[in-house]
């Protein structure tokens, strides 16, 4: 559950900061169906604002339905692509939603939005006195720092030092403070140790731990779940059925989109993926891997394991090799020669990141099983 206790003094400060910075906070209903629910005045204003600018109106782009551009678009349908059978090698049709068109280029702005906004609108976070702490192996702290800036809040981003230089450089321009912890994508324990230290030494800090924050779950349930349902309703035929959904587990927030779909399609299967090199659910958690976006060596508190039907391990070599294949001219020439895929489809492959590719591999394994 989310604590909805109102703290009047801090809420007054949150309202004051919103007025100072001309911040309007979107509802989940607006983010789920922006074309229908976002006021025309805001839609018109978005045409003049780039997706990655620090303008508070970009909060209205924390949705799966952004126009696929970064220079001032509005809204459309859910962004997704079908992975053709020439590539998957299976009879089942495989679709993947695309997170590229969110601010920061990743849907983690949604999870972090779901965590911070409930604290602001209840006065549990005072933007004048509190610091928002975003512990993550990468994209979640980027999303949290971005939303913090748009919402007029001070932020601290925590991530492993072995993450990309580009990610650290980006955060230095967005977050108020950036902390590097020992290790890589698999070293979540070290991040938690830094969080414990901050809890002891900085009473003004509010920790937004995505692995235990129910706001993460609620955003994905109310926004990502309906988006997946909309994709299926758009592509289904009279003789098709929705068999299942596959999510690689980072914070497990996206798994709640599977909960939403099970509420509407009770017979579907929900599967979770993890790296073969660090098989936590399958084999108790050990090792290191390179699939960015997946958490390791623990099962997140928000993961509804009772609603999870299958687990699949994805070899990080496969994700990395496909990433190269999908993003190079040589790779595209190889695919065109072997499969006959069109240039139009090949041009969409760079929209897929490492964990997105792992999701596609997991969907194929799931369908084969």
Task: Describe the overall structure.
The strands form 3 sheets. The protein has a 4-stranded parallel β-sheet with strand order 5-4-3-6, with helices on both faces. A 3-stranded parallel β-sheet has the order 7-8-9. A two-stranded antiparallel sheet has the order 1-2. The model has no long low-confidence stretch (mean pLDDT 94). Helix 11 (255-264) links the parallel strand 7 (244-248) and strand 8. The two termini are 35 Å apart. It is globular, with a radius of gyration of 20 Å. The chain has helices at 8-21, 28-32, 34-37, 40-46, 85-88, 108-122, 139-150, 165-172, 188-201, 214-235, 255-264, 280-283, 316-327, 329-339, 343-346, 354-368; strands at 80-83, 94-97, 131-135, 154-160, 177-181, 205-207, 244-248, 269-275, 310-314. It has a domain at 218-368: Rossmann fold (3-Layer(aba) Sandwich), CATH 3.40.50.1100. The chain is α/β, with parallel strands linked by helices and 369 residues long.
Q: Give the ordered list of helices and strands.
A: HHHHEHEHEHEHEHEHEHEHEHHHH
Poorly predicted runs are none
- Give Rg in angstroms: 20 Å
Q: What is the mean pLDDT?
A: 94
Could you name the CATH class of the domain at 218-368?
Answer: Alpha Beta
First CA to last CA: what distance?
35 Å
């Amino acid at each position: 559950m989310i604590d909805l206790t109102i703290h009047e003094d801090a809420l007054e400060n949150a309202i004051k900061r919103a007025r100072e910075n001309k911040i309007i906070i979107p509802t989940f209903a607006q983010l789920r169906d922006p074309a229908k629910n976002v006021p025309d005045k805001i839609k018109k204003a978005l045409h003049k604002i780039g997706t990655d600018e620090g303008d508070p109106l970009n909060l209205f782009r924390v949705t799966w339905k952004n126009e696929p551009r970064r220079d001032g678009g509005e809204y459309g349908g859910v962004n997704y692509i079908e992975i053709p059978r020439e590539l998957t090698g299976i009879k089942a049709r495989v679709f993947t939603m695309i997170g590229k068109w969110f601010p920061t280029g990743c849907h983690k702005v949604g999870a972090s939005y779901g965590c911070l906004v409930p604290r602001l609108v209840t006065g549990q976070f005072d933007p004048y006195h509190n610091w928002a702490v975003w512990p993550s192996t990468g994209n979640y702290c980027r999303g949290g720092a971005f939303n913090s800036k748009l919402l007029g809040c001070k932020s601290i981003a925590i991530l492993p030092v072995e993450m990309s230089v580009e990610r650290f450089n980006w955060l230095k321009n967005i977050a108020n403070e950036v902390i590097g912890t020992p290790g890589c994508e698999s070293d979540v324990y070290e991040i938690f140790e830094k969080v414990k230290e901050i809890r002891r030494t900085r009473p003004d800090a509010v920790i937004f731990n995505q692995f235990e924050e129910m706001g993460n779950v609620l955003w994905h349930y109310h926004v990502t779940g309906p988006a997946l349902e909309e994709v299926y309703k758009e592509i289904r035929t009279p003789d098709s059925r929705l068999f299942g959904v596959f999510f690689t587990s980072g914070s497990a927030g996206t798994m709640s989109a599977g909960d939403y779909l099970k509420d509407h399609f009770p017979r579907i299967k929900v599967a979770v993926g993890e790296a073969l090199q660090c098989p936590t659910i399958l084999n108790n958690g050990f090792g290191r891997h390179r699939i960015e976006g997946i958490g390791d060596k623990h099962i997140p508190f928000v993961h509804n394991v009772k609603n999870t039907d299958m687990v699949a391990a994805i070899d990080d070599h496969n994700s990395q090799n496909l990433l190269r294949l999908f993003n190079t001219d040589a790779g595209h020439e190889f695919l065109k020669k072997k499969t006959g895929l069109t240039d139009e489809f090949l041009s969409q492959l760079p929209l897929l990141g490492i964990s997105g590719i792992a999701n596609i591999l997991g969907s194929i394994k799931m369908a084969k099983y």
